[in-house]
Amino acid sequence: MSQESKRTYTIRLPETVAAQVEKKAESSGIAPTTLIQSLVVDTCARLAKTAIGGAASSATGKFDALSKVCERLQQNATERHTQLLFEVVKTRSAFLHALDQNLGEPAVDEIIEASEKTARDYIARLGGEGGTRQ
Fold it and tell me: What is the pLDDT along the chain (134 residues), one digit of tens a residue?
């Protein structure tokens, strides 16, 4: 504190408080001004520490909330993916049933075989044999 530049503030204290400050300063062997300076500095340091702790706590809370939002988005994406797969399978089933009724079983079997071959070729192009991406 002695190395820093200082500002002067004039404050008025009630007589009872001033008497307590003087008594405490005298018992501590310091000047009343020094006692008041140390009290103000200590109080400001505590407030700053509390504010920083509160900000860290707030940041942690925001991070937790963000994590929960990300988890929910992932969950929603999984649910959408599952719903899309269901819709594709349902549509394929209805389409094949309609074809079977109109074209007959041998023609539908050829269509299914051609579709499966196309799917295998596509998967092979994506990730090589076995269908896994690398």
Answer: 456 787 888 888 889 988 888 888 888 888 888 888 888 888 777 777 776 666 666 667 777 777 888 888 888 888 888 899 899 988 988 888 888 888 888 888 888 899 889 989 988 998 865 544 44
Q: Counting runs of H as helices and runs of E as strands, what totals does the chain give? A: 3, 0
For residue 95, give the nearest of 73, 120, 112, 77 by alpha carbon: 112
Phi and psi at residue 14, to the nearest 5°: -60, 150
Place of tokens 């504010």: 51
13: Cβ contacts below 8 Å, ≥ 6 apart: 21
Cα separation, 120 vs 130, whole angstroms = 9
